[in-house]
Design goal:
alpha+beta, three-stranded antiparallel beta sheet
């Protein structure tokens, strides 16, 4: 079930131009759009309540001072191979709100004074207990999901990457506006530089 845009919101968004499509097609297009947004950004934008119980996840350190983690609204504990770290031993990042004023979740932990030790290469020795997710789905994600979902529905009218437009057809290209909306929200891993 889609999390970023409700089916009713999406139906309202596409109804005027798309005409009648059945619920299954709209739901499928919306789910595919949400999955594509997550894949492109290399993260999910799942919302977690401020009072949700924290859960532990493990991560593999690489010997550098920075450990990339999943998006976390709040981090309650960090340990290495079962030994708890003091909050003065690390820094959660980003440390401030974004330049646009949006409060973003923590996506990395910087170890102060020493790097994250690699006990055994490939071994997930760092445990992070947190409330995993976002406080709210960013407006850019909501709009990009709608646009992409609509594009996916419109692809049903294409044959071999050619739109059915008159006798000669027309080229279908990737929506650059969706990429522009999502670019600031992409994780470093999606660029291949993490």
């Amino acid at each position: 079930m889609p999390d970023y845009v409700t089916l009713a919101e999406f139906e309202s968004y596409v109804a005027a131009e798309m005409g009648a499509t059945d619920d299954a097609h709209r739901a499928s297009a919306l789910a595919a759009a949400e999955a594509a947004v997550n894949q492109y950004c290399q993260r999910t934008f799942a919302v977690v309540a401020a009072n949700a119980p924290p859960t532990a996840r493990t991560f593999v350190p690489d010997g550098t001072p920075v450990l990339r983690i999943h998006d976390a609204r709040a981090v309650t504990a960090v340990s290495i191979d079962g030994t708890a770290l003091s909050a003065t031993d690390y820094q959660l990042e980003p440390t401030t709100v974004s330049l646009t004023g949006r409060s973003e979740p923590y996506c990395q932990i910087r170890r102060l004074y020493v790097p994250w030790l690699v006990i055994t290469p490939g071994y997930a020795s760092v445990s992070v207990t947190a409330r995993w997710g976002w406080a709210a789905v960013p407006a850019e994600v909501v709009e990009a999901t709608k646009i992409l979902g609509k594009d996916i529905l419109q692809q049903r009218r294409t044959i071999g990457n050619m739109a059915q437009a008159g006798d000669f057809g027309g080229r279908v290209t990737m929506n650059t506006y969706v990429r522009q909306l999502l670019a600031p929200l992409r994780r470093a891993e999606s660029w291949g530089i993490a």
